[in-house]
Amino acid sequence: MSEREYLEYYAINRRGVSGWFKVRGYVIERKLYALHRVTGILIVLFMLPHFYSTGWHPGTWWDAILGLIVTFHVANGIRLTLLELFGIGIGKPLLVKKPFQRPVSIEGKQRYLLAFTIVLFIVLALIWSYYAVSVKPLMGG
Fold it and tell me: Could you report the per-residue pLDDT of 114-127, keeping only the tens digit for each?
C-alpha cells in the first residue's frame, strides 16, 4: 500500500469511537457488535456508582432495564464465545468477487446460533423483568 493510499484509507476511516456505532447498511453481526459495545459501556456506567455506594438502589423499573441490558450482553457474549473461542459455526471463507460486493450475512450454523442468542435473550429478559417488577417488591427488596 502506497503512502497516498494509506492516507486516503485513514482519512475515510477517521471516525474513531463513533465508528463503533455506525450500523446503517451493515449486516446483523455489525449491529450486534455495536449493541454489545453499548451494553458493555452501560453496565460499566451502572457499576461505578453502585460499587462506590452499595446502599444506592435505583428502583424497580431501573432493575428491569438493567436486566435487559445485562441479559443481552450475556446472551451475545455466549454467542461470541462459541464463535471465537470454540469456532462453532465458522465455515470456509467466501470469495468476494468485486470490491464493492456486499458480503453475505450469516448462514448455516451461525444462523441457528444467532436465533439461539435472540431466544436466550428474550427468555432471560422475561425472567429478570418478572423478578424485578413482580417478585422483588413483594419480598421487600
Answer: 889 999 999 988 88
For residue 74, the tally of other CB atoms under 10 A from its CB is 15
Q: Given its phi and psi angles, is residue 56 left (phi above 0), alpha (psi -120 to 50 degrees) or beta?
A: beta
Task: Report residue 66 as a C-alpha cell.
Answer: 438493567
H-type alpha helices, the chain: 3-12, 28-52, 60-84, 109-130, 136-138
Backbone angles phi, psi at 90, to 5 degrees: -90, 120
Burial (CB count <10 Å: 0-12, 13-18, 19+), residue 79: buried
Cα-flanking dihedrals φ and ψ of residue 140, to 5°?
85, 20
- The CA distances from residue 99 to 7, 13, 95, 102, 103, in Å, are 19, 17, 11, 8, 10
List of the chain residues with pLDDT < 70 = 1-2, 5-23, 25, 50-60, 92-105, 137, 139-141
Buried/exposed 105-140: b ≥16 CB within 10 Å, e otherwise: eeeeebeebbeebeebbeebbeebbeebeeeeeeee
